């Protein structure tokens, strides 16, 4: 019994096993015991090794299998945009929304990556990734020349208004409401806690005073005019700060007179409705945005109207976020109706910005993304050595990314990250952007903002509310006799 076993074992031992000992060397009986234990150890290692290899192979197989699966899905969706684009929903509000609320996000892959998208029948567009932070894309020829002209003419017909009116609004109210002492304010502003206020500490906190954009030079002028910086070192001590009255600061600014170029934004704009009954070009544009973003149509349809903006020569828009951060108390402007609470924190909840260039600007007027794909985002680092990266009149050339306005091109980006569960997450601070000063000619752009409430239930309630209202209106249209009272009233 033993022998065959030993033999079999000997046979099965792989090459590292000692060669069979010559028979005549019988005294090495001890050695055979030794070789058995040696053989056992080798076998254990061998099995562990084989199992490891098998496990590794299985892991690699399944991992690459799922990746291959998803990337092949992506490729097929890219090569034929029909698959990824949501079918055009003729209903304005989607009753199935609550069941399948999910926000697809387009993959950027890498900067410079170009994917084909199908936005209009019989035509393919190319969509290029411009940055990953924020997730930003450019689509040339999104609008035809004719469509651009129609949008501009419609805006002109409607009439444009000043984007920023120069009405001073008391900024003091918040400080007064919060009841902060000068020391407390000083400590909040003194970011590096060195007991002095550097110009960038003041500007980081409030670049904008009554709608006026402050630069480091402005600040120096104000200090000089109000004799605020006694020792002339360009910094404010707590004592100097305490003596600088906020009213005096404000009066000084307004007395100097405010030019349009000193405002946050120097442009005119109007809003164009894109729903039923709107001009075909505007409706087409909205449908194209639905296909581009792959979002539920109802979400896009319930978003803000199209904003058309005109910058004259010398016009600009300093860098900003289109939508604010979300705190637990934050409410969205668009779902206010469905929210049961009122909150002092309200923002426009613009999940996506789609920006259309309606003309090619002769010179300047680029859209700048000063911190796109930056390694880090730090608010304090935005002003360094008198260079304010948010200032699009002076420092556009120092930002990380600029898009040249070309007629018919669209760019779009996500102002919020994903929450990892298919819904809106935190604000993407890297989405900071602005309009560089137009140095020659005029600039026409249009914004399509897609509003999504980061609170999933609030968005769902809002959509339900709107669809109920719409079906009631439709009912009334079908049976006008039900509404005789109203008619009589009218
Ligand atoms: C805006 C905006 C950029 C541009 O209108 O919100 O950021 O290039 N515009 O005009
Ligand atoms: Ca300081
Ligand atoms: Fe913007």
From TrEMBL:
Top EC class for this record: oxidoreductase
Any GO MF annotation of the entry: iron ion binding
Feature: compositional bias, Low complexity: 70-79, 465-474
Residue span of region Disordered: 1-26, 70-99, 465-490
Keyword tags: Calcium, Dioxygenase, Endoplasmic reticulum, Glycoprotein, Iron, Membrane, Metal-binding, Oxidoreductase, Repeat, Signal-anchor, Transmembrane, Transmembrane helix, Vitamin C
Superkingdom per UniProt: Eukaryota
Catalytic activity: L-prolyl-[hypoxia-inducible factor alpha subunit] + 2-oxoglutarate + O2 = trans-4-hydroxy-L-prolyl-[hypoxia-inducible factor alpha subunit] + succinate + CO2
Annotated GO biological process: glomerular basement membrane development; pronephric glomerulus development
Topology in membrane: Single-pass type II membrane protein
Any single GO CC term annotated in Swiss-Prot or TrEMBL for this entry: endoplasmic reticulum membrane
One Pfam assignment: EF-hand_5
EC number: 1.14.11.29
InterPro entries: EF-hand-dom_pair, EF_Hand_1_Ca_BS, EF_hand_dom, Oxoglu/Fe-dep_dioxygenase_dom, P4HA-like, Pro_4_hyd_alph, Pro_4_hyd_alph_FE2OG_OXY
Compositional bias ranges of the Polar residues kind: 1-12
Domain Fe2OG dioxygenase: 302-452
Bias (Basic and acidic residues): 475-490
PROSITE patterns documented for this protein: EF_HAND_1, FE2OG_OXY
Localization per record: Endoplasmic reticulum membrane
Residue stretches spanning the membrane: 38-62
Cofactor: L-ascorbate
Subunit structure: Homodimer.
Protein function: Catalyzes the post-translational formation of 4-hydroxyproline in hypoxia-inducible factor (HIF) alpha proteins. Hydroxylates HIF1A at 'Pro-402' and 'Pro-564'. May function as a cellular oxygen sensor and, under normoxic conditions, may target HIF through the hydroxylation for proteasomal degradation via the von Hippel-Lindau ubiquitination complex.
Name of the protein described by the UniProt record: Transmembrane prolyl 4-hydroxylase
Annotated organism of origin: Pygocentrus nattereri (Red-bellied piranha)
């Amino acid at each position: 019994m033993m022998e065959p076993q030993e033999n079999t074992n000997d046979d099965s031992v792989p090459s590292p096993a000692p060669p069979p000992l010559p028979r005549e060397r019988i005294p090495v009986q001890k050695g055979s015991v030794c070789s058995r234990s040696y053989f056992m150890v080798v076998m254990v290692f061998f099995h562990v090794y084989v199992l490891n290899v098998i496990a590794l192979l299985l892991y690699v197989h399944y991992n690459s299998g799922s990746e291959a699966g998803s990337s092949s899905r992506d490729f097929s969706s890219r090569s034929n945009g029909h698959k990824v684009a949501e079918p055009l929903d003729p209903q304005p509000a989607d009753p199935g929304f609550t069941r399948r609320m999910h926000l697809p996000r387009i993959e950027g892959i890498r900067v410079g990556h170009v994917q084909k998208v199908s936005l209009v029948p019989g035509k393919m567009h190319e969509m290029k990734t411009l940055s990953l932070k924020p997730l930003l894309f450019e689509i040339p020829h999104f609008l035809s020349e004719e469509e651009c002209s129609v949008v501009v003419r419609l805006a002109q017909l409607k009439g444009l208004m000043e984007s920023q009116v120069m009405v001073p609004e008391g900024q003091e109210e918040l400080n007064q409401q919060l009841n902060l002492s000068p020391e407390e304010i000083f400590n909040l502003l003194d970011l590096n806690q060195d007991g002095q206020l550097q110009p960038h500490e003041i500007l980081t906190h409030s670049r904008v005073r009554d709608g006026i954009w402050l630069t480091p030079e402005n600040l120096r002028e104000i200090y000089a005019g109000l004799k605020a910086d006694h020792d002339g070192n360009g910094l404010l001590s707590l004592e100097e700060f305490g003596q600088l009255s906020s009213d005096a600061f404000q009066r000084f600014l307004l007395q100097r007179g405010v030019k349009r170029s000193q405002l946050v934004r120097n442009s005119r704009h109007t809003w164009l409705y894109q729903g039923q009954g709107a001009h075909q070009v505007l409706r087409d544009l909205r449908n194209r945005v639905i296909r581009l973003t792959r979002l539920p149509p109802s979400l896009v349809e319930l978003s803000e109207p199209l904003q058309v903006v005109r910058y004259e020569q010398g016009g600009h828009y300093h860098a900003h976020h289109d939508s604010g951060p979300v705190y637990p108390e934050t409410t969205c402007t668009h779902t206010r109706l469905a929210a049961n609470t009122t909150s002092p924190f309200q923002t426009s909840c613009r999940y996506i910005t789609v920006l259309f260039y309606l003309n090619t600007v002769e010179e300047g007027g680029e859209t700048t993304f000063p911190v796109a794909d930056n390694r880090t985002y730090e608010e304090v680092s935005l002003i360094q050595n008198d260079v304010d990266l948010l200032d699009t009149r002076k420092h556009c050339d120092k930002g990380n990314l600029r898009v040249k306005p070309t007629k018919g091109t669209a760019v779009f980006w996500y102002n919020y990250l994903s929450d990892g569960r298919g819904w809106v997450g935190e604000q993407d601070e890297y989405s900071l952007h602005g309009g560089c000063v137009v140095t020659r000619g005029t600039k026409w752009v249009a914004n399509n903002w897609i509003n999504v409430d980061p609170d999933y239930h609030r968005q769902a309630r809002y959509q339900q509310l709107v669809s109920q209202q719409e079906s009631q209106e439709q009912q009334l249209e079908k049976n006008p006799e039900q509404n005789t009272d109203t008619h009589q009233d009218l």
